[in-house]
Amino acid sequence: MANERGVSVVDPEVKLDVKLEVKSEDKSAVNIVKPQANPEVNNEVNNDAYESIHSKSPVFFDLYERKSELKHQTHYCPGCGHGVVHKLIAEALEELGLQDKTIFVSPVGCSVFAYYYFDVGNVQVAHGRAPASATGIKRSCPDKIVISYQGDGDLAAIGTAEIVHAANRGEKITVFFVNNGIYGMTGGQMAPTTLVGQKSTTSPWGRRPSNEGFPLHMAEMLATLEAPTYIERVALSDNKNIMKARRAIRKALEIQRDGKGFSFVEILSPCPTILGLDPVEARSRIGEKMIPVFPLNVFRDHVHEPLAVKESNPPQRPVADVLGITPKAGAHDTSKRTHAHRFKDVKIKIAGFGGQGVLLLGQLLIEMGMREGLEVSWLPSYGPEMRSGSAHCHVCLSKERIGSPLVSHPDVLVAMNEYSLRKFAREVASGGVIIYNGASLPADFSAPDVQVVSIPAAEIADKLGSTKAANIVMMGALLEETECLAPGTALSVLEDKVKKLDLLEIDRKALTAGRLFIDEQAHIGAVSQPDGFA
Ligand SMILES: Cc1ncc(C[n+]2csc(CCOP(=O)(O)OP(=O)(O)O)c2C)c(N)n1
Ligand code: SF4
Questions:
Q1: pLDDT tens by residue, 450-497
Q2: In this structure, are residues 395 and 347 in contact, taking their beta carbons and an 8 Å threshold?
Q3: Cα 137 versus chain centre, distance
Q4: CA 91–ligand 1 middle distance (angstroms)
């Protein structure tokens, strides 16, 4: 159940075998239990003795902003195991001093909003993909503690491949697998871990192995792989087992902290709501029904053994060399040193029909950005039909590392057609720029707070010998209007990329024509000068 501070805790009505001591004045805080050294057993930790600490881990946000009037309360149902697991993870991160280094990958499932609670780095990913995303994050930020948090639908159904391969590669991440044996979020469909005979909305007569197969034992399955370092199954069935879960969670995080490889903790957890049980019954059911099928055990503990997957660093060569994109000697000065970037970052959206060179224009811009020493990202978006379907791409140019390649509010919209102009204009940030491929704007079009420039790029390109060069005309206009990148860099990129000499000649002219048009003839609906631009 959720207490007044909003974190799910064990129902106080349950006869707890713990001694509750109020250690702080904050009566509204959450109770947690810690093992105590018992002098009567040779100072070893006695797992049956507990100390209660009444405080909420600082790893949680003080306020859960998503909840309008209930800012201390999680969205979990009373008696849900997710709240308990969150608490155990938060306390372990706190004790290990890892809060500032942690990146928490939330799944799709009831725990989709974990990022509203954990005051750490957060990423929410598509259903089942958490171990793949966590792999990418850990590999690019090896010093971070990366947690993949998943339910049984997420990990053992749609995400079976991701978890198996992450474990098999021995990724140095930690996976917390909350196995409640049912799909909670979507209203009680059968999960791969649903028990034989258990009814669900998709197994209304009870799970039958002949029809739905047997429950998947993920911990045991992963323990057949060579790479994982630590695999344990624990349960939230009673306080003793919650203490074991607490230690397993902490150990899994320590393993990652120490760079010792892949750690995985499966946690048998209650879902009272879907099972139609009260919180006490749901907790007892874990011991009575789940543990006999999913025995608690340490299936792998190679903490003191050498890593199964040895580090082998590839030969160190610059990526640009490997990709063969090193600028040619004598190519145009890339202006890295001479071009002053009068912005912290610029977000650009380029949109049009497939075939108008929309995606290519984005790629050329990021190539230019790289050559000017900027951080860059390019994110394409298009339908199954590449040609003549709608396509757009997101481009970020930044002096700092880019958090997300997604551009929701572009500073600059390059609209290659009217459809894109109308579709994306309202997203443009106040004070931003729209560069529109057209002799004039549609009569009924207006974009308050935005500077709109129209340029007949397709006509200009046509006259130069190839309509296809309209995107380069637009590039010239973009560079002239915003001065975000140097025209010299554009030329050097075109010279490297365009292999056919006649096309290169047209592109050179198109670039110049775009720039000249802005200087001399552009129809500009000036509203205000965008921040940071000249
Ligand atoms: C690609 C995709 N397929 C299906 C869904 C629907 N869906 C959302 S959550 C979920 C399963 C949730 O169960 P589980 O992972 O066990 O987490 P729980 O809610 O029980 O914590 C499903 C099938 C989705 N969001 N995305
Ligand atoms: S439906 Fe089940 S898993 Fe989801 S929040 Fe409620 S109790 Fe927890």
A1: 999 999 999 999 999 999 999 999 999 999 999 999 999 999 999 999
A2: yes
A3: 8
A4: 27
Write the pLDDT tens digit of every residue in 140-193: 999 999 999 999 999 999 999 999 999 999 999 999 999 999 999 999 999 999
* Ligand 2 mean position, distance from CA 236 (Å): 14
Who lines ligand 2 at CB under 6 A?
Answer: 76-77, 80, 82, 110, 180, 184-185, 271-274
pTM, two decimal places: 0.69
Residue of 10, 180, 200, 201 to test ligand 2 pocket, by largest number of atoms within 8 Å of CB: 180
Residue to substitute in 86, 106, 133, 154 for testing ligand 1 pocket (most ligand atoms within 8 angstroms of CB): 154
User: Does residue 194 contact residue 203 with C-beta atoms inside 8 Å?
Assistant: yes
Backbone angle region of 128, left / alpha / beta, with phi > 0 → left and psi within -120 to 50 → alpha: left
In the numeric block, the tokens 């034989």 are attached to: 196
Give the residue whose CA is nearest to atom 21 of ligand 1. 110
pLDDT grade for 323, boundaries at 50, 70 and 90: confident
Q: CA triplet 104, 106, 107: central angle to 5 degrees?
A: 150
> How would you list the strands of the sheet with 433-437, edge to edge?
375-382, 390-398, 345-353, 412-415, 433-437, 451-455, 523-525
